[in-house]
Amino acid sequence: MATTTPSKPVVELDAATVRFCGDSGDGMQLAGTQLTNTSALAGNDIATFPDFPAEIRAPRGTKAGVSGFQLRFASTEIFTPGDQVDALVAMNPAALTTNLRDLVTGGILIANRDAFDEKGLAQAGYTTNPLDDGSLDGYQLFPVDMTKLTRTAVDGLGLSQKESDRCRNFFAMGLTFWLYDRSLDPTLRYIDAKFGKMPAVAEANRRALKAGYNYGETTDAMASQYQVHKADLEPGVYRNITGNQALAWGLVAASQRSGCELFYGSYPITPASDILHELVRHKNFGVRTFQAEDEIAAVTSAIGASFGGAMGVTGSSGPGIALKSEAIGLAVMTELPLLVVNVQRGGPSTGLPTKTEQADLLQALFGRNGECPVPVLAARSPGDCFDVAHEAWRIATRFMTPVFVLTDGYVANGAEPWKVPDVESLPEITIQYPKPVTNGDGFQPYARDERLARPWALPGTPGLMHRIGGLEKQDITGNVNYEPENHQHMVDLRAQKVANVAKDIPPQTVDGPDSGELLVISWGGTFGSVATATRQTRQAGGSVAHVHLRYLNPLPENLGEIIQRYKTVLVPELNKGQLRMLLRAKYLVDAIGLNKVQGKPFAVSEVVHKIQSLLK
Amino acid sequence: MKTETALSVLTPGDFASDQDVRWCPGCGDYSILAQMKKVLPTLGVPPENIVFVSGIGCSSRFPYYVNTYGIHSIHGRAPAVASGLKIARPDLSVWVITGDGDALSIGGNHLMHAIRRNLDLNIVLFNNRIYGLTKGQYSPTSVLGQVTKSTPAGAIDNPLHPISLAIGCEATFVARSIDVNIKHLAMVLKRAAEHVGTSFVEVYQNCNVFNDGAFEYATARDTKADATLQLEHGKPLIFGKDRDKGIRLNGMDPEVVELGKGISEDDLLFHDEKAIEPTLAYLLSRMSHPEFPEPIGVFRDIDAPRYEELLNGQITAAREKKAGDLQKLFTSGETWTVE
Fold it and tell me: Alpha carbon of A488 to those of A22, A189, A366, A402, A447: distances in Å?
C-alpha cells in the first residue's frame, strides 16, 4: 500500500495545509497527528496547530464543541502551519461553519454528508443545507457519506453502531492520505500497536482507513491527487516531536548531563499536563514526578528537592504560576537552582485554557513581592523547547537561581520534525559542590564565586550544616540579618548575579541586513510567523531584519547596539505589548507594536501587512 | 535513616547552633528545643544527615537553633518542602517544625496530604492556640469565646483538634505531649523519630505573652493528674492523682468512672496503639477538658507503606527493566533519515 501507482493525474505542490475539524469526540486530533507523522516520515518539513475547546465533550454537533487539527507539510523549510487551509475536512455542519473562513478560495472541502441532517444543520445555524444550496460553489466540494460508508466497511465485525461510527475518523484519514498520496503503513502500524489487544476494533479501524483510501481511488468525483516531495533538510536522523515532549526530554537530558536526578513537582493544568504525562514514563532515568496537592506544593516540593541536590522543576500555566509566586521568591532568597516552566495560555484568571497567548512575560519578570530578579528564557518552536530546557538548567546551576522557562499552548501542542541530537554533543553541565569540612572551620553558605553564585552544599555532607530561609540573609554567613546596609547590599547582589547571566550567553544574532529601515523583534512562539513574514518581505525587496530573543532576562548585551542600527523597531506579540514595554524602558526606543490576543497565533499575512505599512 | 547505633561522640551541645535563641523569655519553645537536642544524639544519625524544615511563626524559627541542615520556608508550606526533600533524599532524617496557625490554617492542605502519603517525616506541631509572631490573633485551635486582638467579643470559629485531624488523614503515628512535661516529651519525640512513616506530634506549648496559661489545667501541680491521662499500650485508661479514675466505653461513648464500687480495671477501655482501624484513636482524640482528661502519649503507631519507598521501588524496577539511555530515548518510535 506504500506506493500505489496513481491512476489519476498527480499535481505536484511545494506545500499543503490540511485541517481536520469535527466534534471534540470525533478523533480529529488523532487524524491530524497521523497525517503529521506520516508526512514527517515521508520527509516533509511540517508544522502543526492543534486547536481544541476547553470542554472535553461539549454537546454533540454544537459550535462550542468543534475541535480542529491543522498541519502544513512542505518540500521546503517552513516555520508555521499556514495562514489558510488548502483542504478542509469537516465532519459536521458546526465544524464547517466555524472553519470555512480559513479555507482558500477554490480549496478542497470534504464534508461528511451524513451529518448534514436537519438537526445538525439547525445546531450550526444553517437554514438551508450548504452542501446543496450553491453557497459553497467557490470551493472544490466533495460531500461524502462517511458515516454510511464506514458502517458498511466495518459490517460483520460485531461492533455496535456507536463503535462503528467511532471509526469515521479513520475513513477521513484514509481519504486524505489518498488525496496527498500518503502511505497508509505508519497508521496501520499505529493501529496494531494501539488496538492490538482489541482485534475487532483494530480490524474495523484498518478497514475504515482502507475504505477511505479506496473511496478516493475509485470515486469519479475526485479527479486528481497531490504530491508534496521531501524537504531539503539538514542531513541526520529526524523524528516528529511536540513542544511538551521536547521540553520533557530536554529536562531529562539536562538531568543526565548534570548528574542531578530530576524531580518534577506539578499539579494538573492545561496546557502543561502533558509534560507530567511524558516525564512519568522515564523513571528509568531516575525521574521522580510528584503530582502535588496544589500548585504551591508543586513548587515548594521542587525547592525541597533542589535543597537535597536534585534537579528541582515545577511546571504549570499562568494561573498556577500566580499561586507559585511566593515560593519562587523563596528560591530567589535561598539561592537554590530551580526551573519554573510556564506553558502560557489565554488569561487573565482561568481565561482561555486551551488557547495560546504570550501575556505572562511581565509576570515571569516581575510577578513577585520585593526586588526579585529571575532569569527568563522562552522557546520559539516545539523542537526548541528541548534546547531551552537544557540551557535553563545550565544557568540555574551556574548562578544558583530559579529560572523561568516560557512556552505557550501553540508551541507546547504543536509538532515539527526534530533532528535527533548526538547525546555526546550536548553541552556538559558541570557543578562544583563544596567539599566536606572536617577541621571544624565554619561553612559560609553565602560566600560567592566570580559569577556571584553561592555554593550548593548538599545535606549529608559533613561539616557543611547550614540553615537557609526566606528571611534576609547576611552576606557570606547566610545568617538572618535585618541591617539596612546589608539589605541594600543583598538586593544589589541578587540583581547583579542575574545581570551576570548576560555575560554567559551567546550574543544576539540578526536574520537579515545589519542595518536598515526596519527591525522586527519577537520572542517565544511567534518565531515561525515573524521569521516567515520578514523573509517574505525581504525577498520582495524590503529592508527588514529579524531578531528573535531566547533570553528575555537578562537581555543579550549587544541588543541595544543592534536596535540603534535600524530606523524603526516593530515588536509583534500575542499580548498588549509586554516586551515592547521592556525594550522602551531599557533602550529608550520608540518601538511600535503589533498586538493580538485572540487565543490564536499570528498569521504570516498579519505580520507582513504590518511590516509593509511601516516600510511605506 | 533509622538505626540503633548511637554515635557516642555526640552530645546535646553538638546540636546547638551558633545563633542566639530569640524566643520570648519563658516561652515553651525553649523546653521543646532542649528536649530535641537531648533526643537527637540518641538516634544514631549524624547531624549532617538531619534536616529541619519549618514554615512561618515563632516555632518555625526552630531550625536556626539546631546545628543540622535546615530550611525556614514560607508560611504553611513546610510539609510540602519536606516531602520533596524526602522523596529526593530518602537517606535523610527529615523533621517538620510547625505551629497551629502554620500547620492548620494556611498550610492545612499540605499537612493533610503529607500525612496521607505517609512519607517518613517527623512533624512536630507546637500548639499554643494563638498567633504569637503577629502579636496575638486567634488561631484555628483557639477555644470558642477566646478573646484575642482579632476577636474582642470572643472567637466564634469552632476549633480544630490537631490529633483528630491527623487521625482523620490516617496518620500512622500520632502522639501528644506537653512542653513542660520534659521526660514525657523526650520519650514522645524519640518514638516519633523511630517510627518509619509520617509521625505527627502535637505539643501543648505555652505562649506566656499572648495566651498565658492556655494549658494550665494540664500542667499545674494540683490539676494535671486529673486533667490528663497518660496513654500506655495494652494498659487500661486510668488517671487521677490517686489513679482511681478510668475511662469506660458506654456504647460508642467514653465515660469517666471511679474504680472500686463494683468497677474493676477489666471494665475499662484498654489502649491499643497498634489497632489498624483508627476508630479508637479518634475516640481518644475527642476527649477534651473539662469533661474528660486529655490523653497524652502515643495514640497510634502502625506500619504502612511509605510514598518515597513505593516511588523509589518503581524507579528501581524501571531501571532494572531498562537502563536509561538518552540516545535510545531520542530515537524511540518512528524516525527517518535525511541523507
Answer: 59, 63, 19, 21, 17
Q: Do B74 and A300 touch (CB under 8 A)?
A: yes
A465 contacts B68? CB cut-off 8 A: yes
pLDDT of residue B72: 98
Q: What is the pLDDT of residues B232-290, one digit of tens each?
A: 999 999 999 999 999 999 999 999 999 998 999 999 999 999 999 999 999 999 999 99
Q: How far is CA B136 from the centre of its chain?
A: 23
| Residue B2, pLDDT score | 46
B19: closest chain A residue by CA: A479
d(CA A420, CA A236): 7
Total residues belonging to chain B: 339
| Nearest-Cα residue of chain A relative to residue B84 | A301
Chain A CA closest to residue B88: A305
Query: What is the distance between the alpha carbons of residues B65 and B75, in angstroms, rounded to a whole number?
Result: 19
The A residues from 454 to 483 touching B (CB cutoff 8 Å) are 459-471, 479-480
B106 in contact with chain A, both atoms CB, cutoff 8 A: no
Q: What is the ipTM of this complex?
A: 0.96
Strands laid side by side in the A415-419 sheet:
A415-419, A236-242, B335-338
**In angstroms, rounded to a whole number, what is the distance separating the alpha carbons of residues B203 and B186?**
11
8 Å CB contact between A186 and A239: no
| CB < 8 Å & 24+ apart, contacts of A122-130 | A123/A61, A123/A62, A123/A63, A123/A93, A123/A94, A124/A61, A124/A63, A124/A92, A124/A93, A124/A94, A124/A96, A124/A97, A125/A63, A125/A97, A126/A93, A126/A97, A130/A93, A130/A96, A130/A97
Say whether pLDDT at A308 is over 80. yes
* Chain A positions in Cβ-Cβ contact with residue B338 (cut-off 8 Å): 43, 230, 233-236, 238
Chain A contact present for B69, CB below 8 A: yes
Distance from CA of A232 to the nearest CA of B (A): 8
Give B123 to chain A, closest Cα distance, Å. 16
Taking residue A447's Cβ as centre, other Cβ atoms within 10 Å add up to 14
Q: pLDDT category, A179, cuts 50, 70, 90?
A: very high
The full DSSP string for B14-61 is GGB-SSPP-SPTT-THHHHHHHHHHHGGGTT--GGGEEEEE-SSSGGG
- Contact check, Cβ <8 Å, B337/A37: no
Angle at B226 between CA B224 and CA B231, to 5 degrees: 85
Rounded to 10 deg, the angle between the A243-258 and A384-399 helix axes is 40
How many CB atoms lie under 10 A from the CB of residue B298?
A: 25
Strands A45-51 and A66-74: antiparallel
Q: Which three cell numbers stand for residue A452?
A: 556571584
pTM, rounded to two decimals? 0.94
Q: What pLDDT digit, counting tens, does each position of A15-54 carry?
A: 999 999 999 889 999 999 999 999 999 999 999 999 888 8
